[in-house]
Amino acid sequence: MGLITNKRGVEVLRDRKISKSTSFTKEERQELGLRGLLPYSVGSQQKQINRVMTNIRRKESDIEKYIFLSALQDRNEQLFYKTIMQNFAELLPIIYTPTVGQVCKEFSQIYRNDKGFFLTPEDKGEIRQILDNWPEKEVKVVVITDGQRILGLGDLGANGMGIPIGKLSLYVAGGGIRPEFCMPIMFDVGTNNEAYLDDLLYLGYPHKRMVGEPYFELLDEFIVAIRDKFPDVLIQFEDFLTPNAYEILNKYQNQILCFNDDIQGTAAVALGGVLSASRISGIPFKDSTILFLGAGSAATGIADLMVSALIEEGLSEEEAHRRLWFVDIHGLLVKSRTDLLPHNLPYAHDAAPLNFIEAIKYLLPNILIGASGAGGTFTQEVIELMSEINHRPVIFALSNPTSKSECTAAEVYTYSNGTAIFASGSPFAEFEWQGKTYTTAQGNNVYIFPGIGLACIGMKPSHLPDDIFMVAASALANCIDQSELDAGRVYPNLTKLRFISLEIAKAVSLKLIELGLTKISKPADLHGYLEALMYNPEY
Ligand code: NAD
What we know:
The chain is α/β, with parallel strands linked by helices and about 550 residues long. It folds into four domains: about 1-45, Hemocyanin, N-terminal domain; about 95-250, Malic enzyme, N-terminal domain (Rossmann fold); about 265-445, 3-Layer(aba) Sandwich (Rossmann fold), CATH 3.40.50.720; about 460-535, no CATH class. The chain has helices at about 10-15, 25-30, 45-60, 60-75, 75-85, 90-95, 100-105, 105-110, 125-130, 160-175, 195, 210-230, 240-250, 260-280, 295-310, 315-320, 355-365, 380-390, 410-415, 450-460, 465-480, 480-485, 495-515, 525-530; strands at about 115-120, 140-145, 180-185, 235, 260, 290-295, 325-330, 330, 365-370, 395, 420-425, 430-435, 435-440, 440. It has a seven-stranded mixed sheet with strand order 8-7-6-9-10-11-14, sandwiched between helices. Strands 1-3-2-4-5 form a five-stranded parallel sheet, sandwiched between helices. Strands 12-13 form a two-stranded antiparallel ribbon. The longest helix has 21 residues, at about 260-280. The protein is globular. It starts with 9 loop residues before the first helix and ends in a 7-residue tail after the last helix. Nicotinamide-adenine-dinucleotide binds near residues 295, 298, 374 and 443.
């Protein structure tokens, strides 16, 4: 029967890791003391998945679907993951963006069952000890946020816990990381969100945010403690405020096994999409002029990785920088501006201070990338201008959630007369226009991080230099097939996500070996080695 447990009766049914509910066979029911505790009919896992999907489709709101799925995760983990894997395109928008944004906003209202790990300033000096309360013996991937910049929604404090929980579900479903290896962490140092501080139901540390030295000291204590408890752990930093995100990444990137998903994960997925787009447009990546709307962590992370990729293609660092331009809330990044942040400085060019439209007319970009968190900023005028300049304008509207997207699929295809090569950060339904169906490719970081996680579990590297994200981006671009490119899609179908993750994990592992960052020697069959590590929730 294949199920090894000392548990009997309801204890089996209440253990989310082993429960198969109505799929327990007659023999298993006899052996595990389950007779009488389940209805007569023994159903296959597929039958259960069908039942789950029927129930989900009956729910009227996405948040109700999320709550239903979250409860399933608590009852029957294998069924939860198998259902997601089989219905990825339909359920990704429920377990992650855009629904997770609403979930975070309402976290204190819909809170039902404890998931994840919460740290607050009151834990100072005791974090290592408190980590022993975590029930799992081995943790290999941590996703941690302090909730200060959740998606494009701002400071959601402890309510941001929906993000690490959601991301780790995607590590499992998309990369085959075992659920028990995953630990979502809320670094709850308070919130400056007045509405939450006034909300009696708010569940987080009810104080203004801890800032400065005490904040970084507490984070450092956590890093030391988690690495003491789980030495090979990969730490993914998620949704930190941009200046903090950079400070944390710069401090730890070359010291420990970590990365920042908003900066490096986004960069890899965007670069992968741009590499595919250049195969469609026919304009080589190294000859492209790229204009970003938004100059925060996401946009700058993308640009920094593009600089490395352009240098790899033979450009000098200066030439690479000249290909990349930014407009932020105050206009074009130019040298005369005095309000720029350190990460903006390499991209401040010698030019007049122009607004967005003027910048497009001046630069004639062939690629436009939105990571501004400002919905509707790719107006009809912007899209029409890009289409006048380019035969196939490349337009990526990466901001999340959907309300913050720089434009919609309908807008981009209509105003570009169907010529745009479009990718979005949020999901859009298929768009029918003038007898043609346009399927929007979603530039979702889920294409990248599960594969990185799998490689880290397999290779136990010391750290992840930027080269790793470049390799991941080109492995992603290599996963797209010609029929997808012909349809104008810059990302492969998400139904292939496990295959994509494995391909990325292989490419990343080889690079880690080449760079001498792992003590694990190259397995004779790397594919087989990594594939064998992948969790398969089938029974
Ligand atoms: P951020 O707050 O660090 O940066 C936002 C930037 O946009 C700032 O430079 C700001 O000046 C600029 N901006 C704001 N309003 C603007 C306007 N009206 N016009 C021009 N510029 C404007 O945020 P971030 O971390 O860089 O994230 C930005 C967005 O990217 C968010 O919506 C986030 O959800 C999204 N994002 C998407 C992905 C993805 O699709 N893969 C990944 C990460 C982040």
